[in-house]
Specification:
By secondary structure, this protein is an alpha/beta fold. The chain contains 18 helices and 11 strands.
């Protein structure tokens, strides 16, 4: 099967949405099949000058508002088909009308079949569903009808599921005649795209730096089934569990172990041990010393600098001096390290004004931009 990385998934998803061409996405658990659409569709909504909302996050009154004025909203609806029965898609029979049998559809069906509606219905875990439910979902994707109603023209429906024989999931194979109606591809782990997402979503900078050092741990499946695997979803969970705790503590090791497995936690502990031994006084006094350091120390330094930047709360004389020293340190690393370090710093805080102010106050800004690229200014 054709394999793509997350960045390609996002691009292909938008193309399929634009022409409403049926799409099916394969990929391992926690790899980002349901997260990538959440990065793509808010931009689509913005282009259409509509308010982006996620159906499952809305209150009953907010759902009624969407149904009453569908032209104002762009709705993303994540439906876990593996947990459905047939009435969730077809609706329940309306026994009041004696002339013919009609069904009462779910609220999200009413929205997506309303005139002026726009958005996407995502049928996740599709190949884990009972055959009768999966068959109904496939019919909706292909024929664009649901509960005897037709989807609005600006509504896109797509599906995703785990891989047969690889992900240890009891999946139902899609029949060939049905597969032939879909665009399909498999999503692979992508450290670059994940790093972009992770830095913008407040993932612990040390976890990001560790994955940069040990790429294979972004998605590492335990084939023996006895140990916990590491996935992008699990790493995000580990970050939330760590919170503000010291990354070198026994508590952090425990939190990482239960989130992404002992293998990941043991290697991460080696990283944090390296980080704990860094002599920051020497590094700040002699930034050129980082040039000859080992790779693990360089990633630990980048993780530490990102953590320091996050803790800067205001732009003052002290923070300007600290930021200048941080850039001095990064400038003595190889360009690949420097660029990742700058990106982690820049994207770790939504306060872009803080970054711009600190950067423009850097005494060596012209030399730095010339060496590492103008993109650091954006």
């Amino acid at each position: 099967m054709y394999k793509v990385q997350i960045k390609d998934y996002m691009s292909l998803l938008e193309k399929c949405y634009n022409v409403k061409s049926p799409l099916y996405v394969y990929g391992g658990p926690g790899i980002g099949k349901s997260e990538a659409p959440r990065q793509v569709f808010p931009k689509v909504a913005l282009e259409m000058k509509r308010k982006y909302v996620e159906w499952t996050d809305l209150t009953l009154d907010e759902k009624k508002a969407c149904i009453a004025a569908p032209e104002k909203y762009w709705v993303f609806c994540d439906q876990r088909v593996g947990q459905m029965d047939s009435t969730d898609l077809r609706g329940i029979p309306n026994m009041v009308n004696s002339e013919m049998l009609e069904t009462i559809p779910m609220s999200w069906v009413i929205y997506f079949t309303a005139k002026g509606a726009a958005g996407a219905i995502f049928f996740d875990e599709l190949n884990l569903a009972a055959p009768v439910v999966a068959g109904q979902a496939y019919q909706i994707i292909n024929e664009r009808t649901i509960a005897d109603r037709r989807l609005a023209p600006d509504v896109f429906v797509f599906g995703a599921g785990n891989r047969a024989g690889i992900d240890q999931a009891f999946v139902q194979e899609m029949p060939f005649p049905l597969k032939d109606r879909f665009n399909e591809f498999e999503v692979e782990p992508d450290v670059v795209s994940w790093t972009n997402w992770a830095t913008s979503n407040k993932i612990n900078p040390h976890l990001i730096a560790f994955v940069q050092w040990k790429n294979s741990y972004l998605y590492k499946v335990d084939t023996n089934k006895s140990n916990k695997s590491s996935t992008p979803r699990g790493i995000a969970r580990a970050s939330r569990l760590i919170g503000d705790a010291n990354v070198t503590s026994d508590e952090t090791h425990t939190m990482v172990s239960i989130a992404v497995g002992e293998g990941f936690a043991t290697e991460f502990q080696a990283y944090t041990t390296c980080y704990s031994k860094l002599n920051w006084k020497t590094i700040f006094k002699n930034p050129e010393s980082v040039a000859d350091m080992t790779i693990d120390k360089k990633w630990a330094i980048i993780g530490g600098l990102s953590e320091m930047y996050i803790k800067i709360k205001k732009v003052d004389k002290e923070s300007i001096a600290l930021f200048a020293q941080m850039l001095d340190i990064l400038s003595y690393m190889e360009p690949d390290f420097t660029l990742v370090g700058i990106k982690m710093i820049k994207d770790s805080d939504a306060n872009t004004k803080k970054y711009t102010s600190l950067l423009t106050a850097y005494p060596k800004i012209e030399e730095f931009v010339e060496k590492f690229g103008k993109y650091i200014m954006s």
